[in-house]
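input
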Amino acid sequence: MLSEVTDQNFPNSDMKFFLAINVFILLLLNVSCIDLPYYKKEVRNWRSIYPDSSRPEFSVYLIGDAGSPSLTTQEPTLKLLEQTINGDTNSAVIFLGDNIYFDGMPASSASSREKQEAKLIEQLKIFADYKGQVFLVAGNHDWDYMKEGGLKAIKRQEAFVENYLKRDNSFVPDNACPGPFITKVHPQIALAAIDSQWWLHKYVKPYGASGDCEAEDEDDMIVQLKDFFDNNKNRHKLIVAHHPLYSNGNHGGYYPFMDYLFPLRIIRKNLYVPLPGIGAIYPLYRKFGGVDQDISHYKYQYFKSRITSTIQEHENLIYAAGHDHNLQLHTEGKINHVVSGAGSRLNPVSGGGNALYTQRAKGFARINYYHSGQAWIEYWIPEGDGSEGTIKFRHKLYEKKRAVHWSCFVPCLKKTIKTLRSQWLHPVNIRLPNCISFYLETTTGKTGFNLSPFPMSILVVMREV
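output
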């Protein structure tokens, strides 16, 4: 028979305290499960804003940290991605690293090899009927979780991926090199892929010709990245890597109160062991640069400063990464900065700062490029088993001015001048033909002009055409 709880065997004050603590913890656990999106004030009307065309000219799908998928049923994020890309031939899919948790691809003789292969196959098999382009970059977990065997693990994963897909170069950059691997996924879209863990790795890594790399060192890699911009001034530019330059997640220094109370959750998500007080040590250690995988660490800061100083002045630019297990969009000057690291795992994220959107939810990002020169981003989240999905945010990143070279319209200009030669002695308003008005509209925003302000010297030269 159950004994009745009374003031004698459980003092009233102690019982109230005990109940209060339990209710408090339960409330914290409940709040931590609410993963509402954050929208900056100026983009909260995003649902009412659409691109000027319903059909993009080209799309790039970005998914990161997908290396811990379910091996019993298809991971919902991967299922939604597979359904979305099938039939979309004018597109590319880029996996943003951490393709195999926790230690990358082991040797063929390792007991864990079969399971690690299975994790990778779960991701690669979605391309069975896909006709677009596929790229994978490496993350810190792919480098043997930053351990001494990292270089060999990357080369094993590269060999496995390219043998399985049997496509053109898919695992980039090659040979665990820093990159940049450069290609055009579309005539107007240039891609540069960087192995960011190469910058942070403290063990053996390849350099120059001895490592089958084009870049001799960090400085040479930056020179090649500058060349990428010089050679693609009038194109859309997409840079992909595993490590973000900005983040409102763990790697950017954000830890919710729950992580201070239950710090072991940071290491393993279900370790709810309360360590009040002492539990703050680990989050603070991470927040203030104790781990080289966090943006505050001096090595990471060096990588960030070299990359940002190279790319920050360029137009029509997107930098995309994973690493933090959530979805984010930041605008940092001219840099449109995408975090899409929620392929199979989740970590908390905050709003604020220069973030336009953040959300702790599994999903992926899709960049749509339109004929008008506009580039838009969508963030997709699976519903249920992934058979359906929802756009949780949509935003216009920029509009690229369409470059028109003189050689394209000089013949038209000559013809126009000849037909108007008799009118040059008097001011005249002219409605320009399409070939010229298009150039003026894309460079000055005007579709016509009055000839009277023209210097006479120019008119004389024009009469000799």
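quick obs: Residues 46-253+294-399 form a domain with the Purple Acid Phosphatase; chain A, domain 2 fold (CATH 3.60.21.10).
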